[in-house]
């Protein structure tokens, strides 16, 4: 296994806010990127029911995730950033939604089973966190959740070189690695560093962002754990 190390694929300034957030959750982050689900996905041995369950829940995650990107188009403070989020939305509609729908066909999951499933507890909590970020209309709040979700996925997806054969496994890995995906994550990290409030004038806002960060990392672990819980 060629583990790249926590966050090592992305540039961050060592004394910046993002680096401090990252250090505050390094153990949970490592647990998530080395999770049993990730290991089985790379080995192509994920139990069929586990894969189904994971993707059905993640399609619900995806819905709130799209809302966050839309909110970033609305609330980012610069035109270039708005354009970047709009481009990413187009990519998600084309590539990621197609992956989900094709995978549901491959796994024999009907629309009636994936469009309105019962939400598992971590999915419901994750959606609450994302929906609150949308409601906050705060670009830094939105970015904190996005950076965790995307960077953590980049880290596990780049953690091994050898990819499995089946589309449903390989496709999910390929969506979260590549030069393009890395560039997207790097953009998010630069943006969060750029707009992060300084301790002096916004101490409580910074603390609020740190809480959101920790909550998102915990939920990533819980989301993986959940598919093995039954
Ligand atoms: C739970 C979860 N976290 C992160 C991602 C990637 O954004 C995803 N698809 N699902």
Describe the fold and architecture.
The protein has helices at 17-24, 26-33, 36-43, 48-75, 79-107, 111-114, 121-136, 139-157, 167-174, 179-195, 199-226. With 230 residues, it is mostly helical. It has a single domain (17-28, 45-226), classed as Heme Oxygenase, Chain A (Up-down Bundle). α5 (79-107) packs antiparallel against α9 and α7 (121-136) packs antiparallel against α11 (199-226). The protein is globular and about 55 Å long. The mean pLDDT is 94. Bound molecules: 4-amino-5-hydroxymethyl-2-methylpyrimidine. The site of 4-amino-5-hydroxymethyl-2-methylpyrimidine has 8 residues, from α4, α8 and α11.
Quick recap:
The protein has 230 residues and is mainly α. It has helices at 17-24, 26-33, 36-43, 48-75, 79-107, 111-114, 121-136, 139-157, 167-174, 179-195, 199-226.
Keywords for this structure?
mainly alpha, globular, 75% helix, 230 residues, Heme Oxygenase, Chain A, binds 4-amino-5-hydroxymethyl-2-methylpyrimidine
